[in-house]
Amino acid sequence: MRNTLIETNRLYIREATEDQIGTIIDLESHPENRDYLWIGTEEEHRDEIADPNHYLLVFCEKEDERIVGYALVRLNRKSEIFELRRIAISEKRRGYGEEAMGGLLKHAFEREGTNRFWLDVYPDNAYGIALYEKLGMHRDGVLRQNYKAERGYLDQIIYSMLKSEYNERKSL
Fold first, then answer.
1. 68 with 11: CB under 8 angstroms?
2. What pLDDT sits at residue 63?
3. N or C: which end of the chain has fewer CB within 10 A?
4. Contact 105, 117 (CB under 8 A)
5. Alpha-carbon distances, residue 148 vs 10, 11, 132, 157, 171 (angstroms)
6. How would DSSP label each residue in the chain?
7. CB contact at 8 A, 105 and 135
8. Radius of gyration (C-alpha) of the chain in whole angstroms
């Protein structure tokens, strides 16, 4: 399919187009998501789409093509790092997050030649933390009061996975 970067059991993970930016901003602004991620502007998202060092991705349900989530990725090709900057799902507790994360990890390590996949998460994002730990990501540490939000200074927990850890999990 056009712009499909990753395919999972239920999802096409595609590079976003400019006409999907409104849907992405709606996902970011949703009450269940907005406390856990930065809300980008239309201009910022257009720049991300144009930047070869970023992937702005939408998760489309195969059955009816509706967008059920999105992710923003930054690539550091020189150091072989895949940074998951944002991820949001519209339909919670249906397994889309786990399926999308599995697809992103597979793509990062098997197609992008990534050595390190990493992300940060706020300590009150219990579902995100549970998912990252279930996927075998390593808790690297905490950046204390690293981000100032409307709700105060927030810590950011760093999780990562190395290529060797991914390969070890894959072989089990």
1. yes
2. 94
3. C
4. yes
5. 36, 34, 23, 15, 41
6. -TTEEEE-SSEEEEE--GGGHHHHHHHHHSTTTTTTS----HHHHHHHHH-TTEEEEEEEETTT--EEEEEEEEEETTTTEEEEEEEEESSTTSSHHHHHHHHHHHHHHHTS--SEEEEEE-TT-HHHHHHHHHTT-EEEEEEEEEEEETTEEEEEEEEEEEHHHHHHHHT-
7. yes
8. 15
Residue 11 sits in which domain range? 4-170
Q: Give how many domains the chain has, as a whole number.
A: 1
CATH code of the domain containing 100: 3.40.630.30
Q: What percent of the chain has pLDDT over 90?
A: 87
Q: How far is CA 127 from CA 36, 123, 147, in A?
A: 11, 10, 20
